[in-house]
Amino acid sequence: MKRRKFLKNSGVATAGIVSTPFLTSCKKDTTKKTVQVNDSKTIRPIVICTWNFLNASAEAWEVLNTGGSSLDAIEQGVMVEENDVNNQTVGTGGRPDRDGNVTLDACIMDKDGNCGAVLAMQNIANPISVARKVMQDTPHVMLAGKGAEQFAYEKGFEKTDLLTEQSKKEWLEWKKTSEYKPIINIENHDTIGMLAIDKNGDIAGGCTTSGMAYKMAGRVGDSPIIGAGLFVDNEVGGATATGVGEEVVRTVGSFLIVELMRQGKSPQEACEEGVKRIMAKNKERNDFQIGFIAINKKGETGGYCIQPGFSYRTYSGEGHVNNPSDSFLKA
Ligand code: SD4
């Protein structure tokens, strides 16, 4: 990434009470409702993402800091990881399914509750951008497999070979035993989920992954599922997840966390409760990882996970920091 100069956060903001669309579905709604949002003193542009993704969070922060929207910040930010061939859980370089095909999942959600997702899409390097196009240019929320890929070509995306030599080599090695035993921590999980608040106080989020390494063909996890891998409600906050998607889907984890924040929990408390719900259903298990992160309308953040080892990065006018997450299970 180019070296960039990060300007000090201006903190410019708008009105205390504004009229925003009140949405009951993922697509357009014409009903208007007056809601209370941050006033100019409390608006705090900020980016938060799963794991220690400095370059991705810096890219998103630059968009915010130059006046861009949270939606643009999310797309530009997570694309950094999609384009990083060394990240073997996202985009190009992602580990393949057990047949050797790299299949990508991503979703994005904006301040108005609009959302778009692509599932199990092959040959396209930036699924987050295709998800955004699904959101903005189609009457649908999700496109899967060949349909998603075809749609991407129609929108001008290029066909790209996503399987790098490194991921191919590891897959060939894996095939010798073909044992599906996901590695617990970051070695197998560096999916990026990202949430951002812009200078208007508007929240957006995105999540992008190649999913679990050596998954069954056609398997889709939580990451592109709105409510599971990601949820944003501009009146309350947002949440996103990394880890074993099956367990996140079972508790509709990100939606749960946003609803807990709506009921008054802090982002930290809500993430902890999200993990506890999962562990309550998995009392005998200690062999998988899930990490949640969350942000509320005030720009407060939190994160929690099952196994030690998860961290999340925040980037704001106050600087950037990698936050080691507390965990349900201790080392
Ligand atoms: C999935 N949640 O497909 C993703 C995997 C993941 O870092 O987070 N990897 O289940």
UniProtKB/TrEMBL annotation:
The active site is at residue 191. The record marks 190-191 as: Cleavage. It comes from the Bacteria. One of its GO terms (molecular function) is hydrolase activity, acting on carbon-nitrogen (but not peptide) bonds, in linear amides. GO terms for cellular component: cytoplasm. Substrate binds at residues 219-222, 242-245. CDD domains: Glycosylasparaginase. Pfam families: Asparaginase_2. This is N(4)-(Beta-N-acetylglucosaminyl)-L-asparaginase.
